[in-house]
């Protein structure tokens, strides 16, 4: 389990501190897919980067299985947490299989030499994400959806109990969004992982996520199942405005 306690996230440089969200409390549970939603600029990426260890909290704590995150070494963390970002990988000159194999680097030592078991894990990761047929393709030739599946395969090859993803469904057509979200949900439940992803695909989130973290403009966090956040009015407050209404009965968005 991951737990955040009184977590404050933001940016500090020199004497300047920019707090993005403060006093956040929430948990992520194994076997669940949790979606992080909120308006542009509320701090979803900032929170994900902080949970991933790419930037330090301004205050508060992150616990992994009851132990403070900063008590683990980077090498230990790389066997616990994998992170999928939306940026295009800048290593263009690799095949899909070679890139997915980079997911094994926490286990393969300095030279990255793969053993038979590593190759088997890479093959299995390609299979689970349905991209075995792309194994020898150059990564620069992939479509957005194929690249996203490849990055998820790399995270799977890393064999961590926690996978964080920053907007994995951005730029995808609707069926591909559904496919990726269902795949991630099945991974969470089927392999007892923690899957935590940011997304703007609210209606899909309401149908597929086990739990939602809703970040507000005020820098607070509402946490609950889609039904709970619908019933307590959090989703209406986030979605409803002139011309848009959130229907709590059907948990869908109505445009007038
Ligand atoms: N390096 C930085 N230094 C200072 N402020 C930053 C930095 N990066 C982002 N911010 C600011 O932090 C706030 C939160 O940004 P963040 O990217 O986390 O939002 P987001 O919810 O992920 O947005 P979006 O949905 O548009 O991707 C924004 O006001 C942004 O301008």
UniProtKB/TrEMBL annotation:
Main location: membrane
Chain ranges passing through the membrane: none
Membrane topology: Peripheral membrane protein
Keyword Ubl conjugation in record: no
PROSITE patterns with a match to the protein in the record: ABC_TRANSPORTER_2
Keyword ATP-binding appears in the UniProt entry: yes
CDD domains the UniProt entry points to: ABC_Iron-Siderophores_B12_Hemin
Gene Ontology MF terms: ATP binding
Domain ABC transporter: 2-242
Compartments, as annotated in UniProt: Cell membrane
SMART domains: AAA
Keywords for the protein's UniProt record, in alphabetical order: ATP-binding, Cell membrane, Ion transport, Iron, Iron transport, Membrane, Nucleotide-binding, Transport
Gene3D superfamilies for the chain: P-loop containing nucleotide triphosphate hydrolases
Name of the protein: ABC transporter ATP-binding protein
């Amino acid at each position: 389990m991951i737990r955040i306690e009184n977590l404050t996230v933001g940016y500090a440089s020199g004497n300047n501190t920019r707090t993005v969200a403060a006093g956040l409390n929430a948990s992520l549970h194994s076997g669940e897919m949790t979606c992080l939603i909120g308006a542009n600029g509320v701090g979803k990426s900032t929170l994900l980067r902080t949970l991933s260890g790419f930037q330090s909290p301004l205050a508060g704590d992150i616990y992994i299985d009851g132990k403070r995150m900063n008590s683990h070494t980077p090498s230990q963390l790389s066997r616990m947490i994998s992170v999928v970002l939306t940026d295009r990988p800048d290593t263009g000159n690799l095949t899909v299989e070679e890139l997915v194999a980079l997911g094994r680097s926490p286990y393969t030592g300095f030279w990255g030499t793969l053993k038979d078991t590593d190759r088997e894990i890479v093959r299995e990761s390609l299979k689970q994400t349905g991209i075995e047929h792309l194994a020898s393709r150059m990564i620069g030739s992939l479509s957005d959806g194929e690249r996203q599946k490849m990055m998820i395969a790399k995270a799977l090859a890393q064999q961590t109990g926690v996978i964080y993803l920053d907007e994995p469904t951005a730029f995808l057509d609707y069926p591909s969004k559904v496919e990726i979200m269902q795949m991630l949900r099945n991974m969470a439940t089927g392999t007892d992982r923690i899957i935590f992803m940011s997304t703007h695909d609210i209606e899909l989130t309401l149908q597929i996520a086990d739990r939602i973290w809703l970040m507000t403009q005020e820098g607070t966090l509402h946490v609950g199942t889609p039904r709970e956040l619908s019933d307590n009015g959090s989703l209406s407050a986030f979605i409803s405005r002139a011309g848009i209404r959130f229907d709590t009965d059907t948990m869908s968005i109505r445009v007038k």
